[in-house]
Amino acid sequence: MTESDIYALDGKRVWVAGHNGMVGSALCRRLADEACDVLTASRNDMDLRTQADVEDWVADRRPDLIFVAAAKVGGILANDSLPAEFLYDNLMIEANIIHAAYRQGVEKLVFLGSSCIYPRLAPQPMGEELLLTGPLEDTNQWYAVAKIAGIKLCQAYRRQYGCDFISAMPTNLFGIEDNFDLASSHVVPALMAKMHRAKQDGAASVEVWGSGTPRRELLYVDDCADALVHLAKTYSGEGHINVGTGEDLTIAEIAAAIAKVVGFEGELAFDRTKPDGTPKKLLDSRLLNESGWRPAISFEEGLRRTYAWYLAHKATQ
Ligand code: GFB
């Protein structure tokens, strides 16, 4: 990877697939600083799982660059309880977009995966070379297999057709526009919503799933969007690139940090009947760092921004 831009965005037509999601909306905010035209498609325009819809839309709108931020996503419980949806939806979405991009001669495509592609007990921190070196975490194997297939699709289309399709693997993300629904959300929005409610109700404790000992690396979504734009401009290669902060915390530490921001002073009640998931998944982001990119938003600052957004948009008073 080099620091100079090899793909300039000026004057380009950039499709953010999944623009309503947390990552997609952050990409739209970030791309507003670039001299490019951002294209978006609503659910009424097409179903991304339907190949003909995607082919027609890409042929009609002719993007130069595509960010594949569209995906069926969710927290540990959603992943574990909806295996068919997580596998089928994600396979269809990525295959349809990547194949349409090839057919229409799209110049560049950035596919987004997740740190759950790595083996459950991979050595830490996890470098890109650890892909497919061991068994996956059981709770999210369906999502992980779909995301691994997406990486392989990008590699295959690069090898066979010379397409400039790249893959980025972000760590666990959080931020504004996140999903705060307790049944399907990730840990940060779930605990924020629970602690906010507990504070309002004067409850003595909040339930935290699992033992509190798993470790997670958390990246604020606007930093992730910035890294993805950086990779679109500067990276062209077959290997996927990790996107993380280089630091992780236990779930108990994450819960304490959220409690501080929310102002919840009660107890944390760990529910060990709920799954812990992967014990640790810290990415080795050296390749990205060596290309000149570093995160700018601390975990605490990200939490403050997220809680301010939650209060303005989601919280019941
Ligand atoms: O964020 P999370 O749902 O996803 O859970 P994963 C992280 C950890 O937080 C687990 C614990 O150990 C949970 O048991 N946790 C504690 C909670 N309280 C809660 C809560 O109220 N809600 C939730 N959701 N968790 C997902 C994968 O794994 O991460 C996806 O399933 C994807 O495929 C995503 O990779 C980034 O980090 O365990």
The gist of it:
With 317 residues, the chain is α/β, with parallel strands linked by helices. It has helices at 22-31, 51-61, 76-81, 83-103, 141-161, 187-201, 221-234, 251-262, 286-290, 299-313; strands spanning 13-17, 37-39, 65-68, 108-112, 164-170, 172-174, 205-209, 215-216, 218-220, 241-243, 249-250, 267-271.
User: Would you tell me the structural class of the helices and strands?
Assistant: alpha/beta
- Indicate the radius of gyration in whole angstroms: 19 Å
What count of helical segments does DSSP give? 10
Order of helices and strands: EHEHEHHEHEEHEEEHEEHEHH
List the ions, cofactors and other small molecules found in this model: guanosine-5'-diphosphate-beta-L-fucopyranose
Low-confidence stretches: none
Structure characteristics:
six-stranded parallel beta sheet; single chain; binds guanosine-5'-diphosphate-beta-L-fucopyranose; 10 helices; two-stranded parallel sheet; 15% strand; 317 residues; 12 strands; alpha/beta
